[in-house]
Amino acid sequence: MADISIRVEGLSYTYPDGWKVLSDVSFELRTGTSVALVGANGCGKTTLLWLIAGLLEAEQGTVYIDEILLDRKNVRTLQKKLGLAFQHPDDQLFMTTVRQDVEFGPRNAGYEEDEISRRAEEAMKRTGCLHLSDRPPYRLSGGEKRMVSLATLLATDAEILLLDEPTNALDPRSRRNTINLLGELEHTRLIATHDLDMALDICDEVMVMHRGSIAARGPAQLILKDRPLLESVGLESPLSLVLP
Q1: What is the C-alpha to C-alpha distance for residues 8 and 37, in angstroms, rounded to an integer?
Q2: By C-alpha distance, which of 49, 24, 5, 18 is closest to 214?
Q3: How many angstroms separate the Cα of 242 from the Cα of each of 149, 193, 218, 227, 236?
Q4: Residue 24 in contact with residue 48, Cβ under 8 Å?
Q5: In the CATH scheme, what is the code of domain 1-81+204-244?
Q6: Residue/partner pairs of 170-177 with CB below 8 Å, 24 or more apart
Q7: Beta-sheet strands, E only, within 15-171
């Protein structure tokens, strides 16, 4: 495994309607680190994740996964190294039962049935949703769907997790369960989030996006204590740093 899991160089992207959402974005993520990607709505966080995952093609710039160029020739191979959790779990869960959703990744990768079952069982146990295995995903709560969506990633060979607002719209207990799980993982994690308290809790670094560019990057404690910086990009300091 390379020392650098993700390397982005000069990445730009414009939507068909002319909105230039990203402009000359460059950064590296070291293997095994957890980095929060924060910024106001519309700053380009989700688009950046989709470009790294190979779901969109940049108009300019390059993405490297484990120092291998992400391009049309090898996008499917490199996507096996990546696990993308969408902001809304309903966009990720589409099978008849939870077990089928969690088994989909390893089955698509060509594993034997015994290994598919083992991986799914282990992933569901780790995320605390084994008891939901025979339930239809649409009957689950928001917190349950979030855990199942994470299980679908953990059942694969993904070494890098791209997580889009993983605590969005969760009740306090589900939010805490999600944070605890994400904090235990050893994967390289790039987490787009408005939950700055979560970022402070489990992320090594924070990258601040503003108007399609990286405005600042540094240790989580340092960045999230910088109130003038956060306010300048439309964010507020985490409650845990504001409350006495």
Answers
A1: 14
A2: 24
A3: 32, 19, 20, 10, 9
A4: no
A5: 3.40.50.300
A6: 170/142, 170/143, 170/146, 171/142, 171/143, 173/143, 174/141, 174/142, 174/143, 174/144, 174/146, 174/147, 175/143, 177/128, 177/143, 177/147
A7: 20-30, 34-38, 60-65, 68-69, 82-85, 160-164
Please give the chain's pLDDT, 244 residues, in tens: 569 999 999 999 999 999 999 999 999 999 999 999 999 999 999 999 999 999 999 999 999 999 999 999 999 999 999 999 999 999 999 999 999 999 999 999 999 999 999 999 999 999 999 999 999 999 999 999 999 999 999 999 999 999 999 999 899 999 999 999 999 999 999 999 999 999 999 999 999 999 999 999 999 999 999 999 999 999 988 766 654 4
* DSSP conformational letter for 64: E
CA-nearest of 2, 142, 6 to 70 is: 6
The answer to whether the CB of 181 falls within 8 A of the CB of 154 is no
203-214 burial string, b = 16+ CB within 10 Å, else e? bebbbbbbebbb
**Residue carrying the six token digits 């282990």:** 122
| End-to-end Cα distance, the chain | 43
Which tokens belong to 75?
A: 């996008």
Pairing of strands 205-210, 34-38: parallel
Alpha-carbon span 73 to 29, nearest angstrom: 23
Q: Which runs of E-coded beta strand occur in 89-212?
A: 160-164, 188-192, 205-210
